[in-house]
Amino acid sequence: MLELRHISKSFVNGTEQVHALNDISLSIQTNEFVAFMGSSGSGKSTLMNIMGCLDAPNGGQYLLDGQDVAKLDDDTLSSIRNKHIGFIFQTFHLLPKLTALENVKLPLRYTDVSSEEADKRAHALLDKVGLSHRKSHRPNEMSGGQRQRVAIARALINNPTVVLADEPTGNLDSKTSVEIMALLTDLHKQGQTIVMVTHEDDIAAHAQRIVMMRDGKVLDLDYKV
């Protein structure tokens, strides 16, 4: 499903050339649950941005469902992000003035899905993540765990090929983190492909496979915590 071939990424920071990624090659199969681990500056978030078509590599090739992403124009990339990739962020990225239901439906604004179908999907997903009773609440009226559940429902609204989760429990307490990881594990059991970035061993342990990174390189494609 996702194939990275000799991916490199560098940028200039002041007078310094920073090599964020160095010759990364790996594959992620359909219905895998993969966690990327590494310290700050290891390159895991940069790699996540490339896999999510939010950034482009300087070198190498990224294939998403067989498509060479580097050869696609901005409009096509935007369409791929919306149709094939679901994003879950550490800071939730919910719009504060919208209700839970409206936040979940948001990605469908840019599709030809009807209003009735959007409502149906959003209600079903809020029920799936245990928040149907909070559908009319805004983010500031919900706990961190509830906000992350809304974000997960939003990530699933377009039936994505892959869900990319960047530190999905980073802003949550231990009990809530366990609940969110149980939800992601259940989604994986239902067939969802999940790629997650984390620096916590206990969170990474929920994945089938752990990729360990350091200094922009892959140290281990099947690391055991």
Task: Estimate nothing, just give the exact number of structural domains.
Answer: 1
**Poorly predicted residue ranges:** none
Major sheet description? 6 strands, mixed
Number of strands: 10
- What would CATH call the homologous superfamily? P-loop containing nucleotide triphosphate hydrolases
Q: Which strand order do you get reading across the main beta sheet?
A: 6-7-8-3-9-10
Write the layout of secondary structure elements.
Elements: E1 2-13, E2 16-28, E3 33-37, H1 44-51, E4 59-64, E5 67-68, H2 74-84, E6 85-89, H3 100-105, H4 115-128, H5 144-156, E7 162-166, H6 174-189, E8 193-197, H7 201-204, E9 209-214, E10 217-220
Parallel strand pairs: 3-8, 3-9, 6-7, 7-8
Antiparallel strand pairs: 1-2, 1-4, 4-5, 9-10
Helix pairs in contact: 4-5, 5-6
